[in-house]
Amino acid sequence: MKRLQAALWVEFLKVRRTKILPVSFFFFMFIGVMMGMLLFLSMHPELASHSSTISMKTSFLGGSDWNAFYELLIQIILTVGVIGFGFITSWSFGREFSDRAIKDLLALPVSRTTLVISKFLVLFVWSILLGITVLLTAMGTGLLIQIPGWSPAALYPFIGKYMVCVFLNALIITPVALVASIGRGYMLPISFVILILIITQLIFVGLPGLSFWFPWAIPSLYSRVAGEAIPAPGIISYLLFLITILAGLFGTLFWWRYADHK
Questions:
Q1: How far apart are CA 179 and CA 54, in angstroms?
Q2: Could you point out which of 7, 33, 73, 216 has its C-alpha 20 to 30 Å from the C-alpha of 210?
């Protein structure tokens, strides 16, 4: 336990002293503010009338009240969560190879399993905090622009659903870590994250029946933002989701323990 605590502290210090930590939080804060501004434009369509692009984006909103804003935030975190959480995972694992620090890291008197677990724990907490950052920034912006239809009765179910979506996206970063380890850098895992996002969108648009079997689609199916026509996730869906997480976790642990790091 002490070695795990030491590894966690080292990993925390590495993250704290890099520029990507504040950049990631500023980016997610920006997303939250932009979501509020998008609804503000939906509330005042005359402001967006001079821009066909903005008018088109605001037309996709289901309304100009808090319920529409809640649904928009869940849609955004489902997308930004995959990208943002995947990118910080790519950075955390890929930087060890790009910076050529892997040999020094593996020479430490700490097991490789402990090193990997510490990385995952830090990344999980980091991802959750980023999701909360979007939520707080967006809610603050919504209150500032005075979105109509405020109701505490609708707020609490939304926060529960939102945080479950954040939690699910934070869990499924393990395959990204495995790809980053095998690829020994940033580019392959970032490409993998983008590919996953594209495949998820294509499945929902062209083959919605397959979304039941695709692990990265499970958070969206759980949230029901894709509509009632698409089937809700069942036991098999969550089982595949769990298998994907465990495969990424144990695959990464196995690779770090047995791969040739010369």
A1: 37
A2: 73
